[in-house]
Design brief:
The protein has 274 residues and is of the alpha/beta class. The protein has a single domain (5-268), classed as Glycogen Phosphorylase B (Rossmann fold, 3-Layer(aba) Sandwich), CATH 3.40.50.2000. Helices cover 36% and strands 20% of the residues. It has ten helices and eleven strands. It has a nine-stranded mixed β-sheet, with helices on both faces. A two-stranded antiparallel sheet has the order 4-5. Helix 5 links the parallel strand 8 and strand 9.
């Protein structure tokens, strides 16, 4: 078995967020993979419901401080870190006062989709990759979970044109049951274009909705893992049609994680030892 460096980027991770299927995957899959001898790092958004004091989060000064331009405005990237002692695992949090500290979750108190989610998602995707570069930790594979993380493969494609740090990095996407009914604002196309989106990219995202994000993530990813029995069957079929490396849902967590671990080998090769 290859070792390799695996970066996990998750929308939610228990105990920092509610205990959903996605949050359990975010919590237990990195631990399992780490126990198989691979090197791992874990990133997630620092939503306002995540209490710094309760979870003993602190800012990583050497990684924080840079500004990212989103929608023609500078936004400060703040990196915090916490830990899950039982898993001997650190979790890095992407934070920004406007997009996370003051913005709540992904929906308002009435369950309505927040119109700022497009900029928050773009900031999170770019901020995660910038933080990993600052860590000088080059992953062989990035495994991302949740629609909020789905811009990661898009930014990898754009970044690799300018910087070779992520050259050769592969991606795996977890297809769950996190559908939302809202739609991103029409300005998202302009914001993507400002970040280097090509005409082909823009056609992929033109629906500005959940299905557009998922289909783009599946198209750009090297592999797809179904992590929820209620995942959209049309999207599962789409992933199969794209002939990506694929892992079906398995209710036996240990067997499922073992299959994912083998999937990594099939994607990054079996001769990576560092």
């Amino acid at each position: 078995m290859a070792r390799g460096r695996i970066l996990f980027v998750s929308q939610e991770i228990t105990p920092f967020t509610d205990d959903t299927i996605g949050a359990q995957i975010g919590r237990y899959l990195p631990q399992y993979i780490q126990e198989q001898g691979r090197e791992t790092r874990v990133f997630m958004p620092r939503f306002s419901a995540i209490n710094d004091r309760k979870h003993q989060l602190h800012e990583v000064i050497r990684l924080s401080g840079m500004n990212l331009i989103v929608n023609n405005c500078d936004h400060q990237l703040i990196i915090k870190v916490g830990s899950i002692p039982a898993a001997r695992m650190q979790v890095y949090f992407i934070d920004n006062e406007e997009y996370f500290t003051k913005s709540g979750g992904l929906f308002d108190d009435n369950g309505q989709f927040l119109q700022s989610n497009d900029e928050r998602m773009l900031f999170f995707g770019r901020g995660t990759l910038e933080a990993v570069r600052k860590l000088a930790w080059q992953p062989h594979l990035i495994h991302f979970t949740g629609w909020f993380t789905s811009m990661i493969p898009f930014y990898l494609r754009r970044i690799n044109k300018e910087n070779a740090f992520f050259s050769g990095t592969k991606t795996v996407f977890n297809l769950g049951a996190d559908r939302f009914d809202g739609r991103f604002c029409d300005e998202m196309e302009r914001k993507l274009k400002a970040d280097g989106a090509t005409a082909k990219d823009l056609r992929m995202y033109e629906g500005l909705d959940y299905d557009s994000l998922m289909r783009a993530a599946i198209t750009y990813a090297s592999g797809v893992v179904v992590t929820d029995p209620n995942a959209d069957p049309e999207l599962v079929a789409f992933a199969r049609e794209k002939k990506r490396h694929f892992a079906e849902y398995n209710e036996d967590r240990t067997a499922h994680f073992a299959r994912i671990n083998k999937l990594y080998d099939s994607i990054i090769g079996s001769n990576i030892n560092n």
